[in-house]
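Project outcomes to date are best conveyed with an example. Our students and postdoctoral researchers have been running inverse folding experiments weekly, and each run begins with a structure described purely in tokens. The record below, which covers 293 residues, was selected by the lab manager from last quarter's runs and is presented without edits.
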């Protein structure tokens, strides 16, 4: 049987394609942990690639700075020796807020849980209500265990009426926490755009975050006395973020099928995966159910 040209190669482990790549740009949530615990087989795959092939950069849409992402991963049991660097959408959004606040205190309307306020700590930013805000920052839903984007219709409409730009620090639409599927900041940003609001996204699938990840990989390679990577591989489970972003950045992608799209992977065949990838207007060179060596 002839497979469609867009059909990914189904592999049993990263080792099957590792020799063709000299850096790994790997998603975090859904690939190396599930929001409660890390996946030991994924950690081993990262460690083996780092030892045998080249640098490993974790690229996440988490609305937190890299140090906080590292602490969270450690709390889930992920060994820090299995990666070289972390690049996060939260770190990129914080850099943008710092730039905007450089000329004076920035009045900010904040959407998100209090636990993530550390992202703006130390910046010349003042939290305000909608009437005073010059810009809005969306980290996520205040209570993602119980709320949905519909709960924010009123405040999003008020933001749109004022013409506020939203900075979205996490373009993900949904994420698994254990077995539950929860809404992320990207869902609110999508709803805001549907109302005519303006959104600036920080993170995947947008090109700047990939440029930052590739720079981090080059820096890690240089520190180890290696040349800059020429054939990086992107790994992820989100077709709209990880895989589409890698495709747009010109990177070969490995799709982790049992992640956020797990309910759509029936049957698990190259033909079905090719159709699924086409539905999301993207492509991947290879696929596996869960990351392992």
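After processing, the design step wrote out the following sequence:
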């Amino acid at each position: 049987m002839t497979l469609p040209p867009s059909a990914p190669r189904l592999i049993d482990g990263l080792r099957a394609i590792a020799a063709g790549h000299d850096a790994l740009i790997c998603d975090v949530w859904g690939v190396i942990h599930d929001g409660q615990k890390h996946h030991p087989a994924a950690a081993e795959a990262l460690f083996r690639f780092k030892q045998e092939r080249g640098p490993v950069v974790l690229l996440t849409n988490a609305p937190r700075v890299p140090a906080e992402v590292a602490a969270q991963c450690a709390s889930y049991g992920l060994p820090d020796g299995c990666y070289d660097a972390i690049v996060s959408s939260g770190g990129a959004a914080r850099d943008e807020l710092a730039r905007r606040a450089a000329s004076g205190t920035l009045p900010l309307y904040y959407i998100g849980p209090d636990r993530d306020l550390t992202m703006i700590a130390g910046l010349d930013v003042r939290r305000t209500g909608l009437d005073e805000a010059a810009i809005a920052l969306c980290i996520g839903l205040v209570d993602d265990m119980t709320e949905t984007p519909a709960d924010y219709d009123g405040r999003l409409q008020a933001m749109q009426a004022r013409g506020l730009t939203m900075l979205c620090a996490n373009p993900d639409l949904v994420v698994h926490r254990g077995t539950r599927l929860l809404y992320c900041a990207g869902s609110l940003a999508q709803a805001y755009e549907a109302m005519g609001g303006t959104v600036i996204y920080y993170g995947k699938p947008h090109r700047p975050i990939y440029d930052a990840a590739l720079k981090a990989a080059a820096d890690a390679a240089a520190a180890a006395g290696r040349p800059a990577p020429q054939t990086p591989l992107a790994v992820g489970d989100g077709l709209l973020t990880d895989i589409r972003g890698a495709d747009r950045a010109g990177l070969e992608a490995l799709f982790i099928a049992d992640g956020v799209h797990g309910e759509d992977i029936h049957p698990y065949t190259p033909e079905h995966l090719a159709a699924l990838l086409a539905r999301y207007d993207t492509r991947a060179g290879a696929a596996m159910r869960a990351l392992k060596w």
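The longest strand covers residues 106-111. The radius of gyration is 19 Å. The training component of this project remains on track.
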